[in-house]
Amino acid sequence: ELFTAISDVEPLLETYKRIIDDLDDYIVKEEERLIVLKRHLNIYKRDHESAMQDIPNYLGNPINAFTLIKRLTSDLDNIEHSIKIGTEYIKNLTVNHSDVKYPTLEDLAGAAQALTRLQETYNLEVSELAEGRLNGVNYSTPMSAGDCYELGKTLYNEKDYTNALAWMTIALKKYKEENQPYLFKETDIMEYIGFSHYLLGDVKTALIWTKKMLALEPNHVRAKGNVPHYNKIIAEDEEKLRRRRRGDTGEDLVEKIPDKEPKMSPFAKERKVYERLCRGEMDVPQEISKTLHCRYLTENHPFLLLAPIKMEYMYRNPDIVLFYNVLSDQEIEDIQKMAKPRFRRATVHDTKTGELVPAHYRISKSGWLRDEESSVVAKVSRRVSHFTGLSMQFAEDLQVVNYGIGGHYEPHFDFARRKEPAFEKYNGNRIATVLFYMSDVAQGGATVFTELGLSLFPVKGAAAFWLNLHPSGEGDLATRHAACPVLTGSKWVCNKWIHEGGQEFIKPCNLEYQAESMGRKIPRPVPKSSR
Ligand SMILES: O=C(O)CCC(=O)C(=O)O
Ligand SMILES: [Fe+2]
Fold first, then answer.
1. Domain limits, the chain
2. What is the overall mean pLDDT for the chain?
3. 146: closest CA among 167, 161, 160, 162?
4. Atom of ligand 1 minimally distant from the CA of 481
5. Nearest atom, ligand 1, residue 484 CA
6. How far apart are the CA of 292 and the centre of ligand 1, in A?
7. At the fourth CATH level, which superfamily is domain 268-347+364-518?
8. Which CATH architecture group holds 105-246?
9. Which of 146, 284, 305, 333 is the most exposed place for a label (fewest CB within 10 A)?
10. Residue 514: is its pLDDT beyond 70?
């Protein structure tokens, strides 16, 4: 779970340093040991050679007989011991430093998935990423053949064969270019490429790669075994095709012409919009954008007459507003400091095992802060009530969230769609969301509204505000939103969710939009140009 928040990855640098120092030390010692071993070996070789030239004479010499026996007993013991010490030393590398943090293989898989998520969301070229470039800017040092191979292997193990193939292809190219010693061979990379093709249903290409492997390593056991297997599948497929053409399969004679454009599922459609919004490629419709404006907020509370708040309409009907400078840098620092020790991953119940497992749809760490425990938190709640005009009587505690690289939250509603037992104590559903941005984000990390086509890019100190419910109390489906993966930097936000309880006289309910949840969409009234 280390990859989810930058604050958790930081301690790994200490681990890294320790391992580097140990390896340095190990290599010096190992080299000394190898010098001794090589000297021994040279003596052995010379000795053996002279023995072979005249065996009876060599063995007839009692000193020679003794040294031969000594070399193959006590000397050999010493050599074996020396080799063992070498490996023992390195074996203890992680045990020696049990006080530092080590990532697990799950962390590795998580980091690999985060990388593919970024690659897919932001349309990044694998070849660019492998060179350490991001959107044309040098981002990190280029990845080695070994890095690409490990990443490919991790993705393969996660059954993401398409991306495994992309990374293995680059690994192979780099392997040939680098010409460096590695613990894996060229045929190992080729095997992953071949097998990924096979698992993606392209048996012919899998066969080509297997043959390429055999050209390099004619005795490769698995490759030799796979060739007849692949040939058999290809022959069977061709036979099926022939029979279908002849019409003796009982199947339709007419070959099925695939739809020109395969139908996209609603989920896939939303995904497309989400990705475009994350990349900042969509603008809100013109009839909305022409009504957008900013102003100073002075109503709702007398306090605002003295200190008006800058507000900007980002969307109308449903209104989505940004309030600027509503958190100071000092407040942000205090909130971060308080929340950090409470950070937990968002979890869901595994449907099979019933265990709590990290949620894949929401990758971040979060913690809750209560008004009662800090004057800063209480002040923020009061400020929310000033600029929203809503009662905080049944508001939730402040939820503080940190997203690391690749951290995201998939499209969702903030309101509960069923009766949520957890919401009972709040007297009703989440009527409104206030989302504070506690950091700017260098690249990525927008909040996007997939039904509206709106992207909000984080501005430190600002807060987004919108109503989640129609006046009828029905959830407003137009408020569906998501947090895009962070590409560079770290993203901090905090949520204040305000509930229906306490708003009875501030926002009285009525029957507007009541039918929307019945599946019928009632057109919204033309947006009013101002409130
Ligand atoms: O982080 C964001 O931009 C949105 C977070 C969000 O939607 C949530 O926490 O419910
Ligand atoms: Fe949300």
1. 2-96, 105-246, 268-347+364-518
2. 87
3. 167
4. 7
5. 3
6. 23
7. q2cbj1_9rhob like domain (2.60.120.620)
8. Alpha Horseshoe (1.25)
9. 305
10. no
